[in-house]
Amino acid sequence: MTTTSNNESTRTPLSVVKFLELSLAICCTYFHFYSFSDDDLVTEFLATGTFCGYVIILTAIMADWIAGYLMKANINKRIMLFYSLLGSALFITSGVFIIQSWDRAFRTRTRDLAMTKGVVSIINGVIFFMDTIFTFRQKK
């Protein structure tokens, strides 16, 4: 008779990393509101979906963690890995596209906000990637 342990789910603490990811996603959304341009709609729609979508996703993950903690339930490790890896790819891609589309524009306040948005997006993508690595290496 073998005892199986549930390696698929993990009780992750509400970490500073998730709060940092949410804060940076909110900052990107704020900068995006003040630097939206109709010149490159694909980049702007990708950025809008990424920033607003991850504000909702990270808020739901935090609410899920709180509810799981109160009911002594676990959060599935695969779901955390999926959202972190996808967030990393989306934030880095959005940041690169934003910087690329605003690189040769005249220096204005809007351009400065857009470039800041791109840099913060790439930083958040790197933080998501580090969160993916730490979640993957977590024992239980």
How are helices and strands ordered from N to C? EHHEHH
Please work out how many helical segments DSSP would assign.
Answer: 4
Cα end-to-end separation = 22 Å
Q: In what order do the strands lie side by side in the largest sheet?
A: 1-2
The count of β-strands is 2
Tell me what portion of residues adopts beta-strand conformation: under 5%
SS class: mainly alpha
Radius of gyration: 17 Å
What sort of overall outline do the alpha carbons produce when their principal axes are compared? elongated
Instruction: Let me know the largest β-sheet.
Output: 2 strands, antiparallel
Transmembrane segments: 12-33, 45-67, 79-99, 119-136
InterPro entries: Ssk (IPR038976)
GO cellular component, one term: plasma membrane
Protein name: CLUMA_CG017772, isoform A
List the helices and strands and how they pair.
Blueprint: E1 9-10, H1 16-34, H2 41-71, E2 75-76, H3 77-102, H4 109-137
Helix pairs in contact: 1-2, 1-4, 2-3, 3-4
Characterize the structure shown.
With 140 residues, this protein is an all-alpha fold. It has one domain. Helices cover 75% and strands 3% of the residues. Strands 1-2 form a two-stranded antiparallel sheet. The longest helix has 31 residues, at 41-71. This is CLUMA_CG017772, isoform A.
Task: Tag the structure with descriptive keywords.
single chain, 140 residues, 75% helix, elongated, mainly alpha, disordered N terminus
Task: Please summarize what this structure is.
InterPro entries: Ssk. This is CLUMA_CG017772, isoform A. This protein is mainly α and 140 residues long.
